[in-house]
Structures are given as structure tokens and as C-alpha cells.
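Working notes for the structural subgroup meeting. M.R. asked for a predicted model of this chain before we commit to crystallization trials. I am recording the input and output together here so anyone reviewing the notebook later can reproduce the run.

Input as submitted:
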Amino acid sequence: MTVANRSGLPIARPTFVSAGAATTSTDDVAERHVVFQAILQMLLVVAIGIGASLMAHSGLGTPARLLFFAGGLGAAGYYVRRSPWLYLTVCFWFWTLAPCFRRVVDYYAGFDPTSIMLATPSFMTLFTLNAVLNSSSLLARRSGRIGLLLAVPICYGLFVNFVLGDVLPGAVAAADWLVPLLYYFYFLTLSDRIAEAEEHFRIFLTLNLAFIVIYGLNQYFAPTDWDIAWIRDSGLVELGGPLPFTVRLFSTLNMPGPLAIWVSTVLLLALHFRTKLMLLVLPAAGILLLLTLVRSVLGTTAVGLIAAILFGRPKVFVSVVKSVTLLTLVMGGIGAIVLVTDPDLSDRIEARFGTLNRLDYDVSAEARRATYAAAPGELDDHPFGTGIATLGRGAVVAGRGQVVIDAGPVAIYLALGWIGGTTYLIGIILVTLQTISGARASGSPAALALAAATIANLSMLAFDNAMGVQAAILWTCAGYANAMADGFREPIDENAAYDVPALGETEFLSAAGPDSSQGIAR
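Returned structure, recorded in C-alpha cell form:
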């Protein structure tokens, strides 16, 4: 069935099928091929990281970093010609693993503050430019025009830095602000074939979450030498102590915050994008999220779950409630066992989360409140903004140190000014509304899970501005959701037949067949 969206563009509209339809042998072969490709890709990324680590161990620090960088670009160039979905997943392997391999290389070869290894996924993202810039229909779509409300203010912030003479800091800041937004536009260029993406992302999320959980739990019980060195050398008190049972988990990422956001996102996407292997990992992932001690992400995860319940149709509502209830019980049981066996952890968690009832004693909450209170005067002094290099890595390159503002709207207005900041926030609101309306119109469990993850990540803007890997996560979810929504501009029957896989009704590793419990026929 083909429908036209409001731009008049014909879009193949997914159809919904009932459960129980037989999966063809061709589909089984295709699914096994996806699994094989995903495992091969994971091994390739790990091999590149291990190769760089071995070179650093041999005293070849600079060649090791260049090998990792070249390996990332080579992998991106190879996969972008084979499959957009394999290209996107390899990018996210590097987003989530590059910080870990950077620590290993720095441990053997000395700390490198410029860290071309951390810049690797940003450069890999630039392979989307060909599709985005050459798309003839991108701006004809409503979601594409909404994206301009995000891109134009960021470009303005970059221009401010150039005018102020901060050319290099501005370019580095663009890698944090502008480059991740390319994922949003790239997904929109793929909306006519978006149904192909589900199997690839389902398997990728399973393998990636398993890798991060295993490494993270090992980090808590027996942190590696490079993780201990990072905790000591970085001087970041947020990382906890450099001893077993005292680490505030950051797993393969640099900080507990990005780790918590990524794990939270995967947990929300698991409302639909899951396999039986992922079901075995999810309880441990919940414990990992708790051990990050990032309270704001626990709150935004709850916001995402509430959104999934509120915006889902009746059958989806039942599935979401069942999934959330079962996972909560399992994670709660495992969490209780962990807390009983480790009283010190129980005390630290109580000390961390107990301040939620006593905000007057919460240092971070007081600092955030002071930031909001001081914001009007600061913003009046800079009505046209100070540029995107005011924050993050751009500020580091400019010699101002790591500038962090724990208040997303304040950070946005400070960087982009009153007009640019307002335009950017309007774009965020419209992206959210478009995501919700698309999920509602489609009735698709996949779109609902993506909408929940998008809303949860956007909720984080109340605490922190989305940059770097956090922005990549946010705009990937939003782009994927809006690419699905593009096919559903016309209302459909509320009682249309579609299936929602109940918890445990997916294959052990491979995605369920396209005619079984996916809900979308390919």
C-alpha cells in the first residue's frame, strides 16, 4: 500500500500483520545473514581497537592512534557503500567503544588531550553528507524542514565563534553540536526503506548492550589498569574511587552520564527492539544503570516509559505494562541481592538518591538552581550568544577548560543567543510533537519505542545540553522515529490488526521473521 504524505511525496506505507504467519525459509536465511554481519562487524571494531592497543603497548603511541582513526574511517567508507544500516551501527560501535580504547592507548603511550581517537566517530559521521546534501526530497518533508530549525541556529553559533576568532574551537564544537544532527537528516533520506533497519538495530543493540554490561560489571568488581589510571589522572570526582567496589561505573564510555543515557535508551528501545539474548542482559543492564548513580537519567527513563504507556494504543499499552512490570521485578530482585551482599554499595546508593527528598542538602541540585537563577543576567549580557565553543571540547581547545552547565536551556541560550536559542528550542518541541504524532498514527510498536527513547533523551535537556555521543543518541532516535512517521501522515483505523511481541516472544539472537511478530511486513 502506498500513500502520500503532506508534501505530496509517495511513500511506501508499512502494513500490519497478525501473529502466527509462517516465516519463509528465505526470511530465515536473510535473518541469519544479518546476525552474521553484526557479529563480524563487532569483531572488526574490537580488532581495530586491540590492534591500536598492541601498537601502543609496543611504544608506538602516535601510529596506534592513527591506526584507530584510519580503521574507523575505513570501516565507515566500506559499510556506507554496502548498507546504510551497517554503516550506522558501525558508527555507534565507535561512539561507544572509542573512549575505552583511547584509555588503553593513553595508558601505554601517555595521555593525549587532543585525542584523535575520540574524534573518530565524528569523522565517520561525515559520510552521511553525500546522501543528505544530494537528497532532492529532504526539505520537501515536514520533518526535514523542522530539522532546519535545529541546524540553522547551530550554524549561527559556529559563525559567532568564527567572528570572535575562535576558528579551531568552533570547528571542534561543531563536531559536538552539528555533526551528530546529521544522523537525523540521514535517517529521513532513508524513510522509503526504513523497514529494513529494524533487524539490524535489534541485533546491534543486543550485542552492544551485552558488551557494555560485561565490561561495566567487570569494571566494578575488578577495574582494569587503564580505567584506574583514567580515574586518577582525570581528577574527576564523579568517577568515584580507583578501587574495586568504589568505581562509579562508566564502562566503555568516558563518564557515568553518557553511559547512563545510552543504557537508558537501549532499555526503552527494548520495549520492541529486543531478542531473547537481550532479555537475559536487561536485568544486568538495569543494575549497571543504577551503579552509574546518575539520578536524572533514572527520572528521564521513567518519563520515557510513561510516554510509551500514554501514547500507545490499547494492545501496545498492555505489552508495555507487561514488559515494564516483569523487567522491574527482575531488576528489583537482582538489585536487592546485590545490595544485601554489598552493604557499602547500599550506603552509597542511599546517600546519592536520598538527597532527592532533601534538595537543600543536594550540592548538584543547588548548583543547578543557582545556574537558573543567574541565567537572566548572564544572558542579558550576551543577547546574541557567545558561540557553540562556549561549552564542551570547544571550550577546552579555546583554553577555557571543560565548561559544563547543568541546565540545557541556559547552555543553549548562552551559546546561541535569544533568537537562535528560541529557534532551537522550538525545533526541539516540534521534533517531539512530530515523533509522538507519528507513533500514534502508525500504531507501530517500533515507532512507539523510538518515540519513548526520543522523549526520554529530550527530557535530559533540563539537566544537560546534548553534545557529542549524547547528541548522536538523541538525533538517531529522533531521526529514526520521524523517518517512520513520514509514512503515516494519513489517519488509520484504530482497530487495525497489528501484533506486538510480548516479552520473550523473539528469537534468541536473530530478529523475529518479518511475517511473525515484528508488526511490520517488509
